[in-house]
Amino acid sequence: xxxxxxxxxxxxxxxxxxxxxxxxxxxxxxxxxxxxxxxxxxxxxxxxxxxxxxxxxxxxxxxxxxxxxxxxxxxxxxxxxxxxxxxxxxxxxxxxxxxxxxxxxxxxxxxxxxxxxxxxxxxxxxxxxxxxxxxxxxxxxxxxxxxxxxxxxxxxxxxxxxxxxxxxxxxxxxxxxxxxxxxxxxxxxxxxxxxxxxxxxxxxxxxxxxxxxxxxxxxxxxxxxxx
Length: 227
Prior knowledge:
The protein has 227 residues and is an all-alpha fold. The chain has one domain (2-224). Helix content is 81%, strand content 0%. InterPro entries: PEX11 (IPR008733). The chain crosses the membrane at residues 83-100, 120-143. Belongs to the peroxin-11 family.
């Protein structure tokens, strides 16, 4: 119990930890609003207010987040040319997303012209979706390489290195889980971004948006939870 509490404290001390918690509030309240809209309008209004407040607070909390893209690129100098290329495109899209998301927040709270909100939202969602495509591609490539490396290790005949082999396999499995969580989160966020870029009955349905938001939040929760 104490270990869980300690991990929760560490998790909530992180910027991403708080973001995933508030994102959970945001999309749970979206689903609650949809469920209660016709049967309990008063409660539905409260849920909608909670959703809006959560969304705005997340934008405020992410102030300066667009600069993390530069740091991510700086920390991966040893990558292959292919992954350097994917990293540049992915992080460029994410930087556009966060930068215009800041402007969207300012327009929604009245600091900038409210008429700019729709344009800022579109540009932000476009950058987000663009970046997530390349993050997904990079993770899928690494997942494939991990599977191939595991097969090669399992087919190895060197019994004298059995302990080392098992350790390597466990590392590959651990990395695979984290990358699967990343793919799940990025696909979910891509759906949310597409709902803004090109509104359609599937992506814009409340159930689709609600589930996508929770998948993204909980996959991020898993990835950021202290080991």
